[in-house]
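Folding Query — how this chain folds
Tokens — whole-number codes for backbone shape
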Amino acid sequence: MAHILVVDDDELLRVVLGRALEEAGHTVSAAASGRAALVSLEAARYDLVICDVFMPEMDGFETLRAVKERAPDLPVVAISAERRSWPGVPSPDFLEMAVALGATAGLRKPLDLKALKALVARCLRSGETTAPDPPEAS
């Protein structure tokens, strides 16, 4: 199957995603930061990157830009928790922003592992850019 790079500063999430994707038959590598992800991209070939938007030091937008400079055709799935806005003050949709900047798709945390596996399969098959999943109703 595919070689997938999971980039997230949350170690538990990296482990959970790695196990779920390995159960689906993929080989998974993990990076705890955007900088570590770029080192991994220099050392190995990947078929897909899953990258958190909010990380310290080098955020997901910076990481996405650097990945796309190095490998323009490499699909990237951006992941992020929904940001709650204050009443009357709209909050930007960071996953839509990531897709506009070149991510193939966006998926909101907490992640539904079945939906993640389906999205990964779609991204690997098609290479199409897709809109992020809609926020859950409050």
About this structure: The helical segments are 11-23, 34-43, 60-70, 94-100, 113-126. Strands lie at 3-7, 27-31, 48-52, 76-81, 105-109. The first helix runs from residue 11 to 23.
